[in-house]
Amino acid sequence: MWRKVKLRMVLEGTEGLLRVCHGSRLTAAPSRSSSSSPELGPEQSEELVQHYLLAMRLVPSAVVVVTTGDGSLKRGVTCSSFTSVSLHPPIISFTMQLHSRMHRLLQSTQRFAANVLSEQQANYSVHFSRPFQDSSDVCQFDSIPHHSSGHLGVPILNDCSSVLQCSTHDMHTVGDHHVWYGKVLHASQNDTPPLLYYDRSYRSIGDETFIRAFETATLGYEEWTHEVFSYLTYQLHDSFATSLFPPPFLSYVPLYSHLSSSPPLSLYLGSLENGLELPDSPRER
């Protein structure tokens, strides 16, 4: 009599091999994953990174300042990524660069507040995105209206669109960032529309706000630090002819790529006052 025959399809790479085996048990041969991709060379990898940046530039996101504190030491930072993770329990996440002092302080406090900025608070985003050196005489929050949380004792920025006070749930290191997860213990909100970040510009729902903030003095002159001015000047150079600025100047401005891509009118006027002639239209990109 013929024994009972069992058939099993074994996938190896992209080919399907049909194996007919006698007996009651089939031992599968080792298989290779068909989803693995070849390693990218340096040029391909860099090209992918650039396309990745361009793609993510077109994803609108809320602007969030994460704050924490331990006694008299208070610190805040504008985070590069923020999202809701879970509803039951309520969990949020944000990312922090490797080796940042904020990361070390969070490891100590294990608590923080996620301050979702309102459309009038572009200056807060600028303030908390630039480097700050600890000093006994100067506090990072000296010029920023804030109060201490009654729930966790962390600094809370006034008049934000919403605030989520959290305890640390978990932390993972992924690539060049730490991913922090927070369990939401208290949430509050008001009627102020949030500040958005899209295509390297600060915006509100339906409007671009970065230039308006400068023109209405919401973003004061004192907030336009050397870093911000250098970045905007670089963007002007990037939009118009390279001959506008000498090479020595351009050598130290390419790093400023995290703020608005639209320079204020005063920057154009300043260029004209210095005898620089602007072309009729921006050069093609």
Secondary structure topology:
Elements lengths: L4 E8 L2 E8 L19 H16 L3 E2 L1 E7 L2 E6 L3 E5 L4 E7 L3 H9 L1 E6 L5 H8 L16 E3 L6 E3 L4 E13 L2 E13 L6 E3 L2 E4 L2 E2 L1 H6 L10 H14 L7 H4 L14 H9 L12
Give the neighbour order of strands across the main sheet. 5-4-8-11-12-7-6
**How are helices and strands ordered from N to C?**
EEHEEEEEHEHEEEEEEEHHHH
What is the correct CATH architecture of the domain at 61-198?
Roll
Shape: globular
Could you tell me how far the N terminus lies from the C terminus, measured between alpha carbons in angstroms?
Answer: 77 Å
Q: Taking all residues together, what is the mean pLDDT?
A: 71
Poorly predicted ranges (pLDDT <50, ≥5 residues)? 1-36, 248-285
What's the story with the biggest beta sheet? 7 strands, antiparallel
For CATH, the homologous superfamily of the domain at 61-198 is named as Electron Transport, Fmn-binding Protein, Chain A
Number of strands: 15
Q: Structural class, please?
A: alpha+beta
Under CATH at level 1, the class of the domain at 61-198 stands as Mainly Beta
Strand content: 25-35%
Number of helices: 7
- Give the proportion of residues in helices: 10-25%
CATH topology of the domain at 61-198: Pnp Oxidase, Chain A
Report the C-alpha radius of gyration, rounded: 26 Å
